[in-house]
Amino acid sequence: MRVSDSMIFNNAALYSDNAQSSVDDATRVASTGIRVQHPGDDPAAAAGIVAHSSALAQAQNLSKVTASANDELSAADGALSQVSDALARARELAVQMSNSTYSAADRAGAAAEVATLSQQVSAALNLKVGTRYVFGGSKDQSAPFDASGNYLGDGTVRQIEIAPGLRQDVSVRTDQVIKGAGGGVDVFAAIGALQSALTANDPDAVRASMDGLTQATGQVAAGRAALGGDMDALTAAKNAADTAAQTETSAVSKLQDADVIDAATKLALAQHALEAALTATSQGFKLSLLDPTGA
Amino acid sequence: MSSLFDILSQSSVSLGAQTAVSATASNNLANSATPGYARQDAVVVDVPGVGGFGGGARLDTVTQKRDRFIEAQLPLAFGQAAFSQAQSDALGAVSALDPNTGNGIDSALSNFFTSLQSLSQNAGDTGLRQGVVSAAQQLAMAFQRTSQGLSQPRGALDQQIASEIPQVNQLAAQVAQLNGQIHSAAASGVQPNDLMDQRQRAVDQLAQLTGATVVNDSSGDVSLALPSGQALVTGGAAASLSVAPDPSNGGHLSLLLTRADGTGPVSLANDAVGGSIGGQLTARDGALKTAESSVDQLAWDLGTAINTAHAQGYALDGTTGHALFDLGSGPSGAASRIAVDSAVAGNPSLVAAAGSSSAGAGDATNLFSLIDVGGQALSGGADATSTLAGIVAGFGSASSGATAVAAQDAAIQSNLTTLRDSTSGVSVDEELIKMQQAQRSYEAITRVISTTTAMLDSLMAIGATTTGV
Hints:
The structure holds 2 protein chains of 2 kinds. Chain A is mostly helical. Chain A is 69% helix and 4% strand. Chain A starts with a helix and ends in a 9-residue tail after the last helix. Chain B starts with a helix and ends with a helix.
């Protein structure tokens, strides 16, 4: 083939441009560590990045939300524990004061203690976590119990979505666990019955109040058990979300990130190719009758 | 029988031939880097003499070295390479759909639904409600940015096309004019090599701009036709292109052709033109338009589904029927219009989290309906994230396909250009050798002249001796 000067120069420009472009691409990938920046770099990977990034964000948020809900349930469990302690102490006083050997003054003193226990229960159940009263149901912006133990909240059980279409309870049904809605006993009423019996210095009535206290204790314990189940479910959901987040992070990385060794190798190869192209070009230019060296 | 004077006369003609060879080589060297220049060759022939003696050498003609077979393929290759390169450049420069940039629709979509999830855990919390409104505003802004990122390049392509049209018209007129000049020169017996070079350059440029290819013509004229078959140049007359806004295509420019005979203008479809203009039109109304309208449809479908779910819920003040997004009317342009409803934007308590008017502030029943929209199939049959992934993949495929085709077309064009240069390109070494050769011949002829002159002098000296001068 006849070789003209325009061929030599055009091809030299083309080859060195191509080599330079390859070096530029390899440098970009090696320096940024990102393989897919534009959808055209790898259309299927770009679509995968969108889908996996979304799943990653959801999993990370779910992990945060479940952790937060679990913290709240943990605080609620602490409050119910205080209620259980108060009921236990009330029952202890009931057993003690049902004995006829105690005087009216003793029972009056016990009645005062029971009144304090009632206030303690009320204070424990007016627990506020962050901006919300956790025992108020959906009416969680104000204290759910007044000084008399009246419940101002509602029977709503709050939920969070832990997977598409799968919801998990994240609050206590206070109207049932504390106020005995649906066939149970009112914790405040049970404590109040003891307090009234003690104030009236009536050992029989004190003895009679023990049943209510026992029922209330069981009711709170059942509430705590349900709450424990919810916490376990949330812990499992959080673990699943963390695992999903790791999986999605890995998937996004596999699709988007460059393999460091591969990127470095490609960069070295591209640099060698550029060097070779430039060397060949400069050598080609020397082979001319116009070469001043006369070579 | 040849005389000494005949030799001198022949030498004079031969010197002229060698001068022409040298001048041709010199012209070739001067044009060795001129694009489209076809090297010239001074054809020297021997002059028949009388009486068995030769008559020396003379310049017969100066021809151009051209490979018509290769040259016939070049306009198409130029047109295709320019077409795919223009399309690849246009799509490659769009970053609106780059994945995982942190400020695209993908991130904003995730943030919006996670903000709802966070609010569902404490629906009465003012900060979380503000978070939902902010995430909704970010989502609207991401749609607007993406829409702008897709519509702006389409507008820029309009400007580019409009700026190339005068060049097309000037080149087409130039080819028509050169056809006439070449015709006249050829008729008068002159080889119009330089004019043919100029015409070839204009044809190459027209092919790159419009994809116009040469139509064979028995008259020797170069006529050009657009890929759709419409004539751009017919002999000595040229058609002209113009642009006008097309109301049916969002006001983007469409091409019009006024024929060489002055009739028209007629509207040209996008695929009637190739080259860089055709590539730009295809990018503008192909992948870019598809992506833009798909993003509009996504904004409309998603916004409508969210608004429907939101309107069923109850705000903190017990009111219902609020829309979360202001979408305007119809899917067309929805992504550029979408904004958070002004009432909700100014009052996050209007986020309709509750399922009933009597529920407390902590009721998140309706938030679950809103969260479920994220997984709900939209008009295309897929959920919002999958729809977006499909848009990204579709645009990416168009871009990567255009890039691959551009590389392939560039290789074909490079190969053909190399083949043309192999025949028509100037080799400096070759021309230098030709000049050396001509110089040698020239020196030899001058030696002949000096020798012949010496012979004549000798003859004159004999004459002088005889006559006693």
